[in-house]
Specification:
Layout: H1 2-26, H2 44-51, H3 55-68, H4 72-84, H5 88-101, H6 106-118, H7 122-135, H8 141-155
Helix pairs in contact: 2-3, 3-4, 4-5, 4-6, 5-6, 6-7, 6-8, 7-8
Amino acid sequence: MLKLKYAIATAFGTLALAAVATTVMSIPAYAVDNIENADAPDLTAVKAKIEAKDYKGALEDLRGLAEDTQQADVYNLLGFTLRKTGDYKTALTYYTKALEMQPDHKAAREYLGELYVETGDMPKAKEQLAALEKLCPQGCEEREDLEKAIDTKVTK
C-alpha cells in the first residue's frame, strides 16, 4: 500500500513539473535592455577613442553615425566629445537632442550637468542632479559623478 501511495505521489509530482515547464517555456523571453536601444549602433570603437582622448577621431565617427541614425546614445556621446573640445554650444544642442529622445538617459543628464558646472551655471547643474536623484534614488554612478563635479566647483 505504501508503494502505491509513493507511486501516485511521484506521478502527480511529475505531472505538476511538466505543467510548470510547459507554462514557463511558452512565456516569451524579453531582453533586459530597453527595446528602443535594440537597434543602437556599436559604439565600442568610438568609446575607445574617447577613452584615449582622441576626440577628433571620435567626432568623425560620431558625426557619421548621427547622419545614419537618430539615437540618444550617439547624440549623448557627440555632446560629450564636443564638450571635451570646448564647443559647449554645440554640445548643449546634442545633449538636448538625446534627452528629447530619451528623457531618462542618465549619462546625458550627468554630462549636461557637467557642462553647466564647466560653464558656471550651477542652478542648471543642480537641476540635472535633481533629475538624476529621481531616476536613481538609491544612487548610481552618473549621480555620484555629477555630485562630485558640483561639489568640486562649489569648493574651489
